[in-house]
Amino acid sequence: MTYIITKDGTRIFYKDWGSRDAQPIVFHHGWPLSADDWDNQMMFFLAEGYRVIAHDRRGHGRSDQTDDGNEMDTYAADVADLVMALDLKNAIHIGHSTGGGEVTRYVARAELGRVAKAVLVDAVPPVMVKKESNPGGTPIEVFDGFRAALAANRAQFYLDIPSGPFYGFDRPGAKVSEALIRNWWRQSMMGSVKAGYECIKAFSETDFTENLKAIDVPVLVIHSEDDQIVPYADSAPLTVKLLKNGTLKTYKDLPHGLFQTHPEIVNPESLPSFAVRT
Predict the structure, then answer these.
(1) What's the pTM value of the predicted model, to 2 decimals?
(2) Does the active-site annotation cover 227?
(3) Which of 48, 94, 124, 227 could serve as a FRET partner for 256 with CA atoms 20 to 30 Å apart?
């Protein structure tokens, strides 16, 4: 397996496929998953001629289960270390959910020439939790409930989420995929319970407002109005308003995990929107 070592000595697992001369696309997974969540997209964009890269966030998947660093600043620093180790330039960074927050923080601070564009898919920015400056946010009690359920029985909790709201399988008439549920559970259980617990604070309470304002490269924001995990009204429209060069692509009835349930829609429709050949 392939790893890079971060500045604090943490091993980060990554996949790196395709020609080294091709434009790189870096995929950033959601909580509490791994690089495997992007299997479909990596195969799709590899066939389109891109170099595709995905890593397991620290504490997740095959990366080291560190005691600390389970917050956005360190996540973004780990991405910077990966980019430097692979010497990636003019890359497209695609982040889903928590990974969208990671992309936002990294891209806002990235070295000139490292990033060409970014894509945020049902992502957590600007900020999820309800507070005085974000009255439309999700109450902190919801995230407290996540933490309690995870600490009490994460194996059950990690079945309940994909079986219900993550993929929209709780919607009337939904076509349930047992394979997607099992794969979500498999990825989640590979990671650290401590990292999973602490990452809830990272994705729900981190405020990305200033990061979004600082991003100069074009950003495609993809979000579904039926997202039950990251509510649309408090995320995508607000994110686009803060970006200097943002484009919003909205779906009406797709779930939070839309790129897994509907790759035949999301993959080809997103490609011409953000892809840049060099």
Answers:
(1) 0.96
(2) yes
(3) 48
Q: What is the DSSP letter of 58?
A: T
Question: Which one is catalytic: 63, 97, 188, 270?
Answer: 97
Number of H helices, E strands in the chain: 10, 8
User: Strand, helix or coil at 95?
Assistant: strand
Active-site option among 227, 234, 235, 270 = 227
| 177 catalytic per annotation | no
Q: What angle do CA 100, 202, 149 make, to 5 degrees?
A: 110
Query: What are the mean pLDDT values of the chain's consecutive 10-residue runs (278 residues total)?
Result: 95 98 97 98 96 98 97 98 98 97 98 96 98 96 98 98 98 96 98 98 98 97 97 98 96 97 89 52
Active site residue 60: no
Token code pair at residue 139: 């109450």
**Residue 86 to residue 70: CA distance in whole angstroms:** 23
Q: How far is CA 207 from CA 96, 153, 230, in A?
A: 16, 29, 14
